[in-house]
Amino acid sequence: MAxxxxxxxxxxxxxxxxxxxxxxxxxxxxREDQFTSAVSIGELYRGAYRSEKPDFxxxxxxxxxxxxxxxxxxxxxxxxxxxxxxSHLASSGQILExxxxxxxATAIHHGLDLVTGNLRHFERIPGIRLDRALADARSALP
Length: 142
Known about the structure:
Blueprint: E1 3-5, H1 7-11, H2 20-27, E2 34-37, H3 38-50, H4 54-65, E3 70-72, H5 76-91, H6 98-110, E4 113-115, H7 119-122, E5 130-131, H8 133-139
Parallel strand pairs: 1-2, 1-4, 2-3, 4-5
């Protein structure tokens, strides 16, 4: 099974004290099965540039995150999935931020399970497969 890591699933790894159960879970997944979206990487860069220590955070993204995950582009086939999801959610009044819809579209297009700590946010998206590893690891913290 292969996984697409949402922005918060990637940034969990950069925390001072990441959830131990999450780290244990990730250690069991082969490198070939770990993906993220270019959209998530953009969100990480945005956070780094807005922080008080941009050089520190940029270095961590480039030395720890980018070598560890395959970054999938937001390309035309993924954009088509995004359009379908957006249209469906808009018709029912359940819009999400574009970045989240783009990340979800990437997971759906590539047939990957989305790892996120924000399950409620993504559950409304038809056809998405969500993995609970991060959410469960966070709920197990004291």
